[in-house]
Task: structure prediction
Amino acid sequence: MILIDNVVFLKNKFAAAWDMVKEAEAQDISEKVKVESARTGVETLSVQTEKGINYIHSRYDPVSEAEKIMAEYSDIEKDTHVFFYGVGMGYHIEWFIEKHPDVPFSVYEPEMDFFRLLTAEKKLESWNPKFLRNMYLGDSSETISKNLTHFVDVVKEKVMLIILPSYERIFTEKTRKFVAEFRNVVYTNAAYQYANVVFSKRQPINSIVNLTTTLKTPNILNEKPQSFQGKPAILVAAGPSLDLEYENLRYIKENGLAYIFSVGSAINSLIENGIYPDAACTYDGKEANHLVFSKVVERGITDIPLFYGSMVGYETVQKYPGPMMHFMVGGDYFSSFVLKRLNDTPVDFVNPAKSIAIITLQLLYKLGCNPIILAGQNFAYTEDRTYAQGMAFNNELSTTHMEQAIVVKDVGGNDVYTNRGLNSFREEMESHIAKLSDLEVINTTKGGARIKGTVYEPLEKLINERLQKQVVEKDWLTTLGNDYDLEHLIQQTQHLLSEQEKFIHLCDSFTNLFAEMKRNIEAFNSKSVGKCFVKFDKLFDRLQENKFYRLLLQPMNQLLFEAILKLFDEIRFQNDNFAKARKLINDFTSFLKNCESDMNTITPLIKNSYQEALLLQKERTTP
Result:
């Protein structure tokens, strides 16, 4: 029978797990599962399967066995969250707690009978409850999916999965399926968090810093040069199959048979082969993005126009030596707020996407190009490489690549290896193509992954049958300008700076309110603490109305803000006002400190952009 201490512990800390235990208590524990004494006198578990009697822990010394199992995990870092699959009697977990008392962890026991026997023998409250964040039970597909979804929602650290070896040996297929689901769910979440961490802080900064250049360069979507209307455009990506197309692309370029647009690092391979695209396209907000164009910079190439997304890494814009044009991307809240055209027509934009290839596909569609021809868009590996040659990094296909690979169909219906990231890009491109019903998209990528909505045609066949005449206009770039309303920009920037001052006062109000909460907690005045929650709600509403916070600070701290919203849901139905207040004070104070830090970073940048706009306005009005 489950120990009464464990009943209380599970009820208070892991209610969902307790509900499953209660439901299981209606049935007897299987006779195939038993607790036995090892030779050292501690308990071990045995289970009878088709293979006979199997032991979850050593029959001789389970504690020493656990130490050997965990020896390879001795260097666990504090910013790691450890996820244990397979608990048994928990010896390896107890070793971990002793060696890493300040590292957070979660446990997952798929075998309910094992867990019931564990809770009849050991007190779970001794398992470092401050750092035991989650306890999951169950082995059905629905339960696993639900548990892992919860896990990725509440855990923000990098994750280390540790599987009890006996589970892999005894429950091989069940463990394999769990690991596959775990990798899929956690990978997707890790990719989302990585994108947020990388881009959320830099996006507003990039947009603000880039504004000076944006005001002096054409908006390619606003101007929509007629030169592109109804003309074929080749979107050149850096997949390994690009190496097969240089002669075809050179012929197309020399004869002006189609506009050539490179995306991302494809420009390096083209330059190495003496092919200058009609324009290079970029969108990546990371600082290192400028390194993609290092060959352009080092060689002083000034005749390749750059199409840059307004939130691209500002280092790219500052270092690029050639002519530039910009385009707006959805989610650029700063630019959307301060920029307006003189004729009051909307500023056009493309929707945000995971890759520059998908961004450029939308861009070319809006520019009127048709058909759009994909080259080097593998979304998959070749036998020996992950990218085309000419990259500034090692792109050889490694053992690690293959271990993590998945299989998809290529353009010829054959199996080809790829990874989850490339596959998600492919699926997103398919989704965008499906929305562009009047656009013809031709995929010329030999050996690349099949892309729904496209037709596969080798590039040489297109040259022979369709790309027969010169369509590229050499002087399409020369007539472009921009028509942003500088007076509107100046007024909106002034408004943002005014809202920034109000945000500072709001932070002071939250600080004073939390001090009042702490005094009421110390005085054990639950009623007054309850009134403080009402005051907090009013302040939070004012915070949500503040333009500076909503446009800039909240997006820069999106993951933390999502955690705050989850906190609100967690404490809403708690009866203990003191516990609710302590949690709110701790988490929301941390959130505000991050916002204030970002405010101190971006406010000088906004003021600088404001001064630049004033100077530009003066230049335009001076005869």
About this structure: The longest helix spans residues 577-621. DSSP finds 23 helices and 18 strands in the chain. Residues 390-395 have pLDDT under 50 and may be disordered. The radius of gyration is 30 Å.
